[in-house]
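Listing S7. Sequence submitted for prediction.
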Amino acid sequence: MSKKNEPTYEQLSKSLTDEEIAQSYVLRSKMTEEEKLHADAEFKKLRLEKLASMSDEQILQSELIRMKLLMKDYIEQSEFLASFSLANQLKKYIELLRLSHAQFARDIGIHRTKLSRIINAKENPNIELMYRLEIHSGAMIPATYWYRLYTKQIEEEIKTNQERRAIESEKVKNELNFKLSA
């Protein structure tokens, strides 16, 4: 439908209720540029006031929801991004909580050197850690999200680590060898 053929609110309100219009249509604004700028400024002011009145707990909760949604979006895409490795996301999680690594390690019941090794990708996390992360986050970030971050990392390593593939191929005897036919 071209802009000229789009129905106006006035036209729609003759046959529909406001609720039906709100559910079914996105109406163009008839604001001038100046009115739009004023409305944007007013919205920004209200948003900043709302943010200023939020408690630390509300801010943390909103940041965790944001982190969860970013993880979910990343998990649903096929591309591997190092910034979304389990280690990097765990670092971000700890930073959001404003905890030291030692305190966080105590909170989840692991030794701080083990946590350090996981954060620095020197040691692989286990499933128990993922359960603990879910529980620690108040179930805000599911264990499956942490697990999927880790499996994407493993998958990328399998795809790209030609050196390790060559080392392992030396250990294989009687390799099956199929000839592709046309």
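Caption to Listing S7: primary sequence and predicted structure tokens for the chain studied. The mean pLDDT is 89. The chain has ten helices and no strands.
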